[in-house]
Design a protein that fits this description.
The complex is a heterotrimer of chains A (about 375), B (about 425) and C (about 300). With about 375 residues, chain A is an all-alpha fold. Chain A has 15 helices and two strands. Chain A has helices at about 5-30, 30-55, 65-85, 100-105, 130-150, 160-175, 180, 205-230, 230-240, 240-245, 250-280, 290-300, 305-325, 335-345, 350-360; strands at about 195, 200. In chain A, strands 1-2 form a two-stranded antiparallel sheet. In chain B, the strands form four sheets. A seven-stranded mixed β-sheet of chain B has the order 7-6-8-9-10-14-15. Chain B is globular, with a radius of gyration of 22 Å. The termini of chain B are far apart. By secondary structure, chain C is mainly α. In chain C, strand 1 and strand 2 form a beta hairpin. The chains are: A mainly alpha (about 375), B alpha/beta (about 425), C mainly alpha (about 300).
Chain lengths: ~375, ~425, ~300
């Protein structure tokens, strides 16, 4: 098997197995509070994977990944909002979100079709499955559309980052402004629990943890398989030299659009699962800070390693939580995080994954791979 | 050994899963070791820490005072302070830590509605108790929150008629930050303006935190209004008042009458920009009562800042700890449900005056006051209700003291 | 109508004030400085402090803020940026970390709160920067109300643009900077001390941020977070204008400011910002290299 041809592949395989084992065994080691918290961090880990896929493998830095996360979150939150008991209290037999009533003109009919302008958009979300499907479909379609526009025009590098950044801020503004159908700044709250086949996923139960953990593992493995396919290899060649790939006859833009959309789909799924664990959706998901944080998680873990990016996200968030809950550090924990970012960029440009790669390379046993660490490219974008 | 430990933890996980059936598994029974834990959840970092840090401080101050006087029923209060980091995601996470891991029977916290909304599912579904100190828009009838800040009727029902009668103003320009509180305040304003025979010429919004007021103040100038009603929140207030003066408007002919502008913003903008304008709040630092003077002095000493200002949400953050203490004394046991039952009808002589928790909707009776800001950054109280006013969280839908929508049984949805 | 155009012009000048420093650090050196907003904030705090300690007029504080922010920029360049030239997206991440650090340092009063020391003028609260009276008393000129503060910002921005132009196109330093901009290796081969010039350029860009901070502080709020929102807008202006193009930056700032001002007065400020973002996206897609750009690299 080519996969196990050298020590790096063995090490990688072991790392994947260890990560999966830890994630699956978590319920045996932690109470429900930590399970819930860890589930949220796994969602962040999924975002790390999405970033690594587009940044590390395609060389496309998306500074607006929060857009797709937020859209996924809002789609499923709309469905869960209609499941909430508060939605049945608004003077109608059929569910109407409470905030629509507050935002409606006096005397408006209390029906979802027409209580506020645009509220009919909510109608299909009465079926929970619609919200779940849309949480993946909407980010993917939007990413496909945007991606087609930018990559066909051969926009690249830092300009992609700027466009995605402006885009997430634009959508955030619109969500806040369309308060009658989005509840604006406060976001969607008072949600019902996700119910599938009569089973209610209480955020603080083992089943819900697995509802989030299993997709995380699946996404990780699928993404890993994807980058090892022919398409994945071609993509990496476009990252390293787009023009050369173009001259070789590859449809560079096509591959970039495809991976951009896959990355968005993963972010949408992450947003959806976050809502299941945290029970609210908020326009702050589309804040600049959050989108940049995701990139930093991936950078700390290793931008060109899917597993590394996922672990980076979990790790940073665990450190943040622990530091902010330590009394001494309560007001200064952010400074520590800031310092970590700077130090990692300066001294570990390939992140933790790069570090472990170097450690493995120096181990005194096993077959040494001939070429140097070409797999972990120091500087994928730009 | 590891097996038994694993089994133990596993069991607790399963117990947690059964939380719905038996929510009080999460609550530590009345402390046997002579302390009772409470959560204190405000932003200590991030943009909102500008105000929330002071709320966190004053909450801890109240707890220290109570402990110094012997605690509650002989138990010392142990505050577990967490940082909401000005981010609803963090708020949600810390709330679940306090409720589910630390199993506190009560959390004091939040300044913005957005952060309250983000923690609410934790408190409602785990049946815990939250004390919320800020003025807000109403429309909440939770059995798991005690609201000690003002609701729209406690800020507006005296303010609008007073503006129309005493200032003789007839044309209102309503301006606010773009989210639910200012929009709901505007709704109540319009009802009151029309009832009192005046009119409003515009109802405009700016993004929360926005600080570019050029175009908006221009609109105010061109609108022909004779009074501006501001529901602008946060540090936008500073830029607003400064731009107002910079464009040549003045509070003598076209006063800003605000519902959110407090001592903090006045100090930050420089008092000369607000001198002559009005604000309606239940509490002002300038309230001339010995209790208030003593409170200000204690607070300044506690935060080690001789110039620190006090304001409405700060005062509420302070007295709500005392209301909680009295509730716990009455209840006898430190469970959320017992404390909630105990807090109903609880009265306290707060720095700003008498307050009382309503037994039906868990909001607080407060005394609406109107102040005119002076050049020294302090308000002069120009009008005050003779007694505390009943809180009506659904006033925009016609709730009156004789026709309550939010009662101890919950929200009467047939009236909406 | 003149009023509306004036507001647009003023918005443009504020954008330009922020973008000017970024134009230099990004355009000349390929550094995406996310801490630029924090340097603006440092400028504002410097003015607040000068007022508190020495009772200094905010206008006199402008050069002080330039020096302080410039010195801090120099420090950042020496410690961090220097190691990251050529890795543009890494500069973004590292300076994001620096931004967090600076914010926390101000909030924690340089960490002195741990020792129970309070530095007046710092801390987490809102600070008050007092403005000279003559700057906020508007007066009439032929039926048009002149707002001294905004007019002053416009004038100051024009002066800074002129100084920057002179520096870049009429001095030896400027020639060296532009040489490095086009091709750092070749510049080094021609005997230019690339490290030194780069450090000075970064310091100059940072100093401009400090000046912007004083002016921002005069009509917005001075708080540890004040810079965060500014940097994105500034950056959009620089990219739209064209990397390293002074003229492009000026035109982009003016144009976006006017569009923002006009849309805001016709509809509302929220829509105006949305239109601005939409326009920026369209412009970058249409001309990724910016409105005015030289063929580079």
């Amino acid at each position: 098997m080519r996969l196990f041809s050298d020590r790096h592949h063995v090490a990688e395989l072991l790392a994947y197995l260890a990560f999966i084992a830890v994630v699956l065994a978590m319920p045996a080691m932690m109470d429900v509070f930590w399970l819930n918290r860890f589930a949220k961090y796994l969602v962040y880990g999924m975002l790390g994977i999405a970033i690594a896929l587009s940044w590390g493998y395609a060389g496309v830095l998306n500074l607006g990944q929060g857009l797709f996360f937020g859209l996924g979150a809002y789609m499923v939150a709309m469905s869960l909002k209609l499941q909430s008991y508060t939605s049945l209290q608004q003077g109608s037999d059929r569910p109407v979100p409470d905030f629509m009533l507050w935002n409606a003109e006096p005397g408006a009919p209390t029906e979802l079709c027409c209580i506020t302008p645009g509220s009919w958009l909510w109608l299909p979300f009465q079926t929970t499955w619609f919200g779940i499907v849309m949480a993946i479909v909407v980010p993917t379609v939007i990413a496909y559309a945007i991606g087609s526009a930018i990559f066909r025009l051969r926009v690249s590098g830092v300009y992609v980052a700027i466009i995605t950044l402006a885009l997430v801020l634009l959508v955030r503004l619109l969500i806040i402004d369309f308060q009658p159908i989005t509840n604006g700044f406060n976001g969607l709250t008072d949600l019902g629990w996700l119910t599938v086949g009569g089973f209610e996923f209480d955020p603080y139960m083992v089943e819900t943890y697995y509802l989030i953990a299993v997709p995380t593992i699946v996404v990780l493995l699928l993404a890993r398989a994807l980058v090892a396919t022919r398409a994945g290899l071609i993509l990496q060649s476009t990252r390293d030299d787009a023009n050369r790939a173009r001259y070789l006859g590859f449809d560079v833009a096509g591959y970039q659009v495809f991976f951009f959309a896959v990355s968005a789909a993963i972010a949408g799924l992450a947003g959806m699962l976050y809502v299941v664990a945290a029970e609210f959706a908020s326009p702050t998901f589309m804040d600049l800070t959050f989108s940049i944080s995701m990139v930093v998680w991936a950078a700390v873990g290793g931008r060109s390693s899917l597993l590394g990016a996922a672990i980076g996200a979990v790790l940073i968030n665990t450190i943040e939580a622990t530091a902010s809950e330590t009394e001494m550090l309560q007001e200064s924990w952010r400074a520590i995080i800031g310092l970590v970012f700077v130090l990692v960029v300066l001294f570990l440009p390939r992140g933790l994954a790069g570090l472990s790669h170097d450690i493995v390379a120096r181990l005194p046993f096993g077959k040494r791979r001939r070429e140097t660490a070409a797999g972990a490219v120091a500087n994928p974008a730009e | 050994m590891s097996i038994t430990r694993r089994n133990l933890i596993k069991t607790s996980a399963i117990v947690g899963a059964g939380a719905l059936a038996a929510p009080y598994h999460f609550i530590r029974p009345a402390a046997a070791n002579g302390t009772v834990d409470v959560g204190v959840l405000f932003s200590l970092t991030g943009g909102l820490s500008i105000i929330e840090k002071s709320l966190s401080d004053v909450t801890r101050m109240a707890i220290e005072e109570i402990n110094a006087e012997g605690g509650v029923n002989g138990m010392m209060i142990n505050p577990i302070v967490e940082d909401g980091a000005s981010d609803p995601k963090t708020y949600n996470e810390k709330a679940s830590k306090l409720v589910i891991r630390d199993r506190v029977p009560t959390v004091f916290g939040s300044y913005t509605s957005a952060s309250r909304k983000a923690v609410l599912p934790v408190f409602e579904k785990r049946r815990n108790l939250y004390f919320y100190p800020t003025y807000y828009e109403g429309f909440e009838c939770s059995k798991n929150v005690v609201y000690t800040g003002a609701v729209p009727n406690q800020q507006l029902s005296n303010f609008i008629p007073w503006i129309i009668e005493n200032l003789g103003k007839k044309k209102f320009f309503i301006v606010g930050s773009n989210y639910i509180y200012p929009r709901e305040m505007a709704k109540v304003c319009k009802i009151l303006i029309e009832q009192n025979g005046a009119e409003w010429v515009a109802d405009e919004y700016l993004e929360l935190g926005h600080s570019e007021w050029g175009a908006m103040v221009q609109k105010i100038k061109d609108s022909g209004c004779d009074v501006v009603l501001s529901n602008v929140v946060g540090d936008s207030v500073v830029a607003f008042y400064r731009e107002f003066i910079n464009q040549g408007l003045d509070h003598d002919t076209l006063p800003i009458c605000a519902t959110v502008t407090s001592e903090i913003e006045i100090q930050a903008m420089g008092p000369e920009f607000a001198a002559g304008s009005f604000t309606s709040f239940p509490y002002f630092q300038a309230i001339d009562r010995p209790e208030n003077h003593a409170f200000i002095e204690r607070y300044r000493k506690f935060v080690n800042d001789p110039k620190a200002v006090t304001h409405h949400a700060l005062e509420s953050s302070y007295f709500q700890v005392y209301l909680w203490k009295q509730a716990l004394e009455k209840a006898g046991e430190a469970t959320p449900e017992a404390i909630r039952e105990g807090v109903k009808g609880q009265e306290f002589d707060a720095p700003g005056g008498h307050v009382k928790v309503d037994g039906e909707n868990l909001h607080t009776y407060l005394t609406p006051r109107i102040a005119q800001w002076g050049a020294d950054g302090q308000g002069t109280i120009v009008d005050a209700y003779p007694e505390p006013v009943m809180p009506l969280p659904y006033v925009a839908y016609g709730e009156t003291p004789d026709n309550l929508y939010c009662t101890a049984k919950g929200l009467d949805t047939s009236k909406l | 109508m003149a009023d509306i155009l004036f507001i647009g012009l003023s918005l443009g000048s504020i954008l330009l004030l922020i973008a000017l420093g970024l134009m230099i650090t990004y355009g000349a050196m390929g550094v995406i400085n996310m801490a630029h907003g924090e340097l603006v904030m440092i400028g504002a705090y410097t003015a607040v402090w000068c007022g508190l300690l020495f009772d200094m007029n905010m206008l006199i504080a402008i050069p002080v803020a330039f020096v302080v922010a410039g010195a801090l920029g120099l420090l950042i360049e020496r410690l961090v940026i220097r190691h990251l030239y050529g890795r543009i997206l890494d500069t973004l991440l590292a300076t994001w970390g620096i931004a967090i650090l600076i914010q926390q340092a101000i909030r924690l009063q340089f960490g002195l709160t741990f020792f129970d020391v309070n530095v007046p003028g710092l801390g987490p609260g809102l600070q008050n920067l007092s403005v000279p009276h003559w700057l906020n008393r508007p007066f009439d000129v032929g039926g048009f109300t002149v707002q001294p503060y905004r007019s002053f910002i416009i004038a100051l921005t024009l002066v800074l643009v002129a100084v920057t132009w002179w520096l870049m196109y009429r001095t030896r330093f400027g020639i060296q900077v532009r040489a490095i901009m086009r091709n750092p290796q070749m510049a080094a081969a021609c005997g230019i001390n690339v490290k030194r010039i780069s450090a000075l350029t970064f310091a100059y860009g940072s100093g401009l941020a400090g000046v912007a901070g004083v002016m921002m502080g005069g009509f917005k709020t001075v708080s540890p977070e004040m810079g965060q929102a500014l940097v994105v807008d500034g950056f959009l202006v620089v990219v739209v204008g064209g990397v390293g193009s002074l003229l492009g930056t000026v035109v982009a700032a003016g144009g976006l400011g006017e569009i923002n001002g006009v849309v805001a007065s016709i509809t509302n400020d929220i829509l105006a910002r949305a239109v601005m973002y939409g326009l920026v996206i369209a412009l970058i897609m249409w001309r990724p290299a910016g409105l005015f750009s030289f063929k580079q690299r």
